[in-house]
Amino acid sequence: MSANVKLYDTTLRDGAQTEGISFSVTDKVRIAQKLDELGIHYIEAGWPGTNPKDIEVFKKLKKTRLKNAKVVAFGSTRRPKAKAKDDTTLKALISAQTKAVTIFGKSWDLHVNDILKTSLDENLDMIRDSISFLKSKVKEVFFDAEHFFDGYKANPDYALKTLKAAEEGGADCLVLCDTNGGTVTSDIFRIIEEITPEVKKPLGIHAHNDCEMAVSNSIAAMQAGCAHIQGTMNGYGERCGNANLASIIPVLKLKLKLDCISDLQLKELTEASRFISETSNMKQMGNQPFVGASAFAHKAGVHVNAILKNPRSYEHTEPAMVGNRRRLLISELSGKSTILRKAEEFDVDLQKESPKTKRILKLLQDLEHQGYQFESAEASFELLMKRAMKKFKSFFKCEGFRVIVELEEDGNLISEATIKLEVNGKKEHTAALGDGPVNAIDNALRKALREFYPSLDGMHLSDFKVRVLEEKVGTAAKVRVLIQSQDEKDSWWTVGVSENIIEASWLALVDSIEYKLLKDKVTK
Predict the structure, then answer these.
(1) Superfamily of domain 6-279
(2) Is domain 296-330 annotated with CATH 4.10.430.20?
(3) Which of 481, 472, 393, 399 is nearest to 436 (CA)?
(4) How far apart are CA 51 and CA 337, in angstroms?
(5) What's the rounded Cα separation, in Å, for the pair 324 and 306?
(6) I need a labelling partner for 344 at 20 to 30 A (CA). Which of 162, 385, 436, 510 fits?
(7) E strands of 380-412, at which residues?
(8) For residue 28, which of 67, 81, 85, 73 has the smallest C-alpha distance?
(9) pLDDT of 55-71, one tens digit each?
(10) pLDDT at 388 over 80
């Protein structure tokens, strides 16, 4: 087992192949920054040359300062019977100007014969030539041996030859891929042990999750000698997904005592997982190990009773170590305790048996029943708590708003919002256009408030997410809108819920502006 494990994230490439995920350029850059903060060593950003989006991503990342991670470009070996120096895929990899590249090649003779439709020897030449060419231009080159375990089980001699061809080409790491995700853990361990004496270069693992074994297969591979582990955050990926780095990292760190990231970075794991979930517009699985909302949640009476006496009785690790928190679901006392902890963070004086504490707990439960979720919208929760405590007075009062969306003869859609407000006893009635209804409301709201609160000019909306809460109800379903706002100092999330997406957006927008003014300690 190697003590020097390298973490390789492919969320932006393999994870982008998840059904329902479509990253924007901005999404990819923000996720890369978050992965870098987490301490990931390599970030595979995409396949340059295949689409304009990934070309733009590599340009943006080249200008983005990353402290820990190297950006990696991904591609394939040259085409059969072609020259590596003339291959468009390989030239695109070089043009990405990354410090490392990864190419995949076929290691299963079935794929060589039936998919590539070339000879086994030509496939070896493709691997050797491609890596040799790339190695002359790029510092680090990784070889993903696609379908390696299936190939080894079918024709071990040939699968091993593909690794040796990559080694001869100068590959820095030979990554063994369980591409179909069908290999069991015992076979992963056995095969890696068998081939380790046959190669000189470090081995890596890239496991898919079609048998729900990607994490265990990755850990077993590492224990058998691999020093390079590929995966995605939250297990995103084609079909059933990839090995989940949000589970692999704490297993390496807490169970196997391998310092793959620092203790402080590990405490950011839950926040990173949820950030990437929101940015991907994917619902976070509550029962996800380590980082899920239910990972340290206790409901059964026996469990709760034991946890209150000694948390180790029903928890395999301390939730704070991965940035998560304990939740006692059926205990009114635990609900109060959670609120008291939050009140402490927000500098609000609350006592456990105070009627105000009970009132906030009841309000929180009612709102969550309506569909609100404050896990990713702490700015809204701070406002909720301070409103309930009578420690916050709104900076303005809405007397009404209207949004009109009009399709013009030339085919353009025009959105216009009209808003009536009262600010410090003064009536404001204004209108503004926008790229869409929410943007129009935002513009009108700022236009009305700018005279009173000039600091709003330093704030802008940076993200907008919508989630349908009751899919079976169809177009009548409630929606939850999450809005991220930021200024020159920090960023914050707010939330709104309604059957009407415009109203939900309005509620989140109002909270975002109120929080900005509260944060700036604006005097009314």
Answers:
(1) Aldolase class I (3.20.20.70)
(2) yes
(3) 481
(4) 50
(5) 20
(6) 510
(7) 397-407
(8) 73
(9) 999 999 999 999 999 99
(10) yes
